[in-house]
Amino acid sequence: MCGIVGAIGERNVTGILITGLKRLEYRGYDSAGLAVVAEGLLHRVRRAGKVAGLEMAADEAATQGTLGIAHTRWATHGKPTETNAHPHMSGDDLAVVHNGIIENYQSLREQLIADGYRFTSETDTEVIVHLLHQALAAGRDLLQAVSEVVPKLHGAYALGVVSADEPDRLIAVRSGSPLVVGLGIGENYIASDQLALLPVTTRFIFLQEGDVAEVRRDGVQIIDAKGVAVERKVHEFDGTHEDVEKGEYRHFMLKEIFEQPAALQRTLEGRINGPESLAHLLGERTELLQRVRNVQIIACGTSYHAGMVARYWLEDLAGVSCQVEVASEFRYRQHVVPENTLLVTISQSGETADTLAALRGATSAHYIGRLAVCNVDSSSLVRESEMALLTRAGPEIGVASTKAFTTQLAALLLLVLATARAHGVRDELLADILTDMRQLPSLTEQALRLDGAIHELSKDFVEKHHTLFLGRGTQYPVAMEGALKLKEISYIHAEAYPAGELKHGPLALVDKDMPVVAVAPNDELLEKLKSNLQEVRARGGELYLFADHHAELSDADGFTVLTMPKVPEYLAPIIYTIPLQLLSYHVAVMRGTDVDQPRNLAKSVTVE
Ligand code: G6P
Asked: How far is the C-alpha of 42 from the C-alpha of 64, rounded, in Å?
């Protein structure tokens, strides 16, 4: 999704802007641009395509300035061309970068055209800069103009604004899309994500909804949604720089796959010291779990798949009913909310527009609490929920989510165990599962050792156009996640089915050109799954199986079997995800796709 970077200092800030944009590349984008102010003039450079192209163009033009804004654009209104790229300008002096969507841009555009403004792009953003120009022409200063225009804009957005006539301030607005202010020494910055600014600062202010910030070289003033000057807390970034570097790995995705043992270790730290530790999982609020009679889970993408696994666990282990729904559907329909429902949102970023909107819309008095299972402590989702369970995966840069998913599963299993305990499930059973959970990092390491074998296997998929993933029980959402990974990064069409549904449709597609991947841990559904696999085999389908020794499946049965470590039942969804991640990674690399930034996709989907 779009990324914003801005800076104001005594030195040339072009390098800070470009570096910041590069660090936001993971969000997904298709064009980039920047505008800097130097000696009373505004210089703008934009390019379709990657930030590297923008950097070359900025170098060639020797673009320099002590105040500037920059942007990566993920096209919504209008194609990913140079003329649609941000910053957008009105006249020669005023420039705006924008993340999000202006829903009423059409009527504003018509009015501005009637007022004599000429539009040079197809974007919704351009209305903002002309409206600001109009307010400035009527005698306002930059801050007044922004405050006057913001109420006219409907939708969710974040803005960065600079004017060559006012070289001593950068104005930033947060209204529905995330924006942080970074604090330096004699210079200050803005960005849509703190990761963009880590090379220059570790001190951040997270703007809140409706905040307008006036960022100067020597200070920052924030005005809240009511127009009152406010002080916001300064946060110190608590990660390490290495987390956001690729290190020895060819791609962030591969690095993040291999980080999973350590990430899971962090998720579990201090939370699995026997059943008593479950009583503190949500701090003082853990007691509330006793009153929970129903759980509503809301999420998008990979996080939704984590929610689907949690539903099996919750009903099975805690005996609490549970529904799971994708946020974009949930937010637009009426629901019957049973009494004593706990609302659980799951999100890696905590900034996904649909998930946030669903949370904000869940106002029924029957919700007794709203819990965010999230990877980013400072995110909107965490701030706007009464309770949070942090997944502690560390920054995830690859668009295709990997360690965020497995850590979500581990955190959700803990939540289920805490709920089960609150509902009187025996401590012995819970203690056994917690003991099993201690093995998670080492079992993950064992699964990662299959990397070489999966690399070999991947060759069979490279030329294929379609793949089917099968699973039963908790392995059905795992199959869905496997299919999502493959289509996201290799662009091979992949679908997942609960294996029992095979004969109700997808079996018609099975032939030698349609590889079928099945996740088959040795659980009670295995025998049924074996029959499903025979159905595939009988139609000449190529079958690839991830199963342990005890499943007693072998290549001799006409399958290609990848032998997994023996895994306790409740950990199987976490461990069986690993080979599917590796499979999609290797297939994508062999097909030569852009693994970390697949086409058309964004890491953080901050627009509807
Ligand atoms: C995008 C990302 C996915 C992610 C989904 C939900 O589609 O590409 O990897 O699963 O958003 O994001 P969230 O941050 O809410 O988990």
From this structure: 10
Distance 600 CA to ligand 1 centre (A): 13
Between CA 322 and CA 358 the distance in angstroms is 17
Ligand 1: nearest atom to the Cα of 355:
15
The mean pLDDT value for 104-110 works out to: 95
Give catalytic status of residue 603 as yes or no.
Answer: yes
For ligand 1, is residue 349 a contact (CB within 6 Å)?
A: yes
pLDDT (mean) for 108-112? 96
Neighbour count for residue 383 (Cβ, 10 Å): 14
Among residues 105, 201, 98, 222, which one has the least CA distance to residue 153?
Answer: 105
Alpha-carbon distance of 287 to 368, in angstroms, equals 12
Whole-number Å distance between alpha carbons of 196 and 232:
20
Average pLDDT of the chain to the nearest whole number = 92
Question: Is ligand 1 within 6 A of the CB of residue 27?
Answer: no
Chain-centre distance for alpha carbon 87: 25
pLDDT score at 573: 97
581 vs 403: CA distance, rounded Å: 10
Residue 431 is classified by DSSP as: H
Sheet holding 294-299, edge to edge: 321-326, 294-299, 341-347, 367-374, 387-390
Please tell me if the CB atom of residue 301 comes closer than 6 angstroms to any atom of ligand 1: yes
Q: Is the CB of residue 28 below 6 angstroms from any atom belonging to ligand 1?
A: no
Contact in structure between 128 and 150 (CB atoms under 8 Å): no
Within 10 angstroms of residue 505's Cβ, the number of other Cβ atoms is 9
Please determine, for residue 241, whether its predicted confidence score (pLDDT) is greater than 70: no
Return phi, psi of residue 187, to 5°.
Answer: -155, 150
Do the beta carbons of residue 530 and residue 549 sit within 8 Å?
no
Most confident of 79-93, 227-241, 557-571: 79-93
> In the structure encoding, which two tokens stand for residue 332, read together?
């637009």
Res. 550: pLDDT tops 90:
no
Largest CA distance in the chain: 82
Higher pLDDT, 204 or 74: 204
For the CA of 381, the closest atom of ligand 1 is: 15
Q: Is 300 a catalytic residue?
A: no
Show the CA angle centred on residue 280, arms to residues 279 and 282, nearest 5°: 115
H or E element at residue 223: strand 219-223
Active-site option among 50, 485, 530, 603: 603
Q: How confident is the model at residue 412 (pLDDT cuts 50, 70, 90)?
A: very high
Q: Which atom of ligand 1 is nearest to the CA of 352?
A: 15
Distance 349 CA to ligand 1 centre (A): 7
Catalytic residue among 2, 300, 322, 374: 2
Strand, coil or helix: 538: helix
Question: Where residue 80 falls among pLDDT bands split at 50, 70, 90?
Answer: confident
Rounded Cα–Cα distance for residues 404 and 486 (Å): 17
Residue 384: count other Cβ atoms within 10 Å of its Cβ: 16
Nearest of 603, 322, 594, 589 to residue 461 by alpha carbon: 589
Nearest to 318 by CA among 571, 526, 570, 520: 570
Distance CA 305, CA 581 (A): 14
pLDDT in tens, 131-164: 999 999 999 999 999 999 999 999 889 999 999 9
Give the model's confidence band at 556: pLDDT under 50 very low, under 70 low, under 90 confident, else very high.
Answer: low
